[in-house]
């Protein structure tokens, strides 16, 4: 997804002020993504009790595979759909997520174009 992000200048413009480390957890596997100016500069596998993160998206692997389908089913089309139907959760500094919501949602949806399903 980092390579796909580099090919989308409009998305880099949206994330130009996004400088955070976030946690993506899939079926108890942790991935820490560090963004600088909207670019993914580092990905570390966890778990880690020492690495701080701003917010976390935790989801079931099957749910993310469905989320990354070219045309996902209702309830899997959006990160908040995953949360609403019990397939995921969002933790941490929600304000930071909301301030960068469009950027983060479009970043997560890059998997649809890259065929991560």
Could you give a quick summary of the protein structure above?
The chain is an alpha+beta fold. It is built from six helices and five strands; from the N terminus they run H-H-E-E-E-E-H-H-E-H-H.
What ranges have pLDDT less than 50 throughout 5 or more consecutive residues?
A: none
Strand numbers in spatial order across the main sheet: 3-2-1-4-5
Report the top-level CATH class: Alpha Beta
Output the helix-strand order: HHEEEEHHEHH
How many domain units? 1
- Average pLDDT across residues? 93
Head-to-tail CA distance between termini: 13 Å
E-strand count: 5
Characteristics of this structure?
five-stranded mixed β-sheet; Nonspecific Lipid-transfer Protein, Chain A; 6 helices; about 40% helix; alpha+beta; globular; about 120 residues
Could you explain the architecture of this structure?
The protein is an alpha+beta fold and 117 residues long. The protein has a single domain (2-114), classed as SCP2 sterol-binding domain (Nonspecific Lipid-transfer Protein, Chain A, 2-Layer Sandwich). Helices cover 38% and strands 26% of the residues. It contains six helices and five strands; from the N terminus they run ααββββααβαα. It has helices spanning 2-6, 9-14, 61-67, 79-84, 94-99, 101-114, and strands at 21-26, 29-36, 39-45, 55-59, 88-92. Strands 3-2-1-4-5 form a five-stranded mixed β-sheet. It is globular. The relative contact order is 0.20. The mean pLDDT is 93.
